[in-house]
Write a structure and sequence with these properties.
Number of helices: 1
């Protein structure tokens, strides 16, 4: 449909609505069952090894230059192997090793193809 500008608080700035929307998100369980619990614009996930999840985006991003944010029940999330249609998320434990997480979540922001 087109670009939609939204006036912010105080009426002094505008935000482009399409640029600000989350383009994909997922809540997964890496530990034992490896399940895609809930998602938006995610085609599938795959077990890429201990603490590693390959996430396949349903409607690809315009390029590999998008932003992924995440959190998990371990210490941190690291994003690796980014492509327009997929990326790998890694769950890092407190000691720095890869470890499966019971709650592994991500959100994707950027331009769709």
């Amino acid at each position: 449909a087109g670009s939609i500008a939204v006036t912010g608080e105080g009426n002094s700035t505008q935000t482009n609505l399409q640029q600000g929307l989350c383009k994909a998100w997922a809540h997964t369980t890496q530990a034992s069952s490896y399940v895609l619990d809930d998602s938006f614009n995610i085609a599938s996930i795959a077990d890429a090894g201990t603490g590693k999840t390959t996430i396949n985006i349903n409607n690809d991003m315009a390029s590999a230059n998008y932003v992924v944010g995440g959190c998990c029940t371990q210490e941190s999330v690291v994003i690796a192997s980014v492509a327009a249609g997929s990326f790998e998320g890694r769950s890092i434990a407190n000691d720095g090793s890869l470890a499966d997480s019971t709650d592994f979540t991500i959100s994707v922001h950027g331009d769709l193809a």
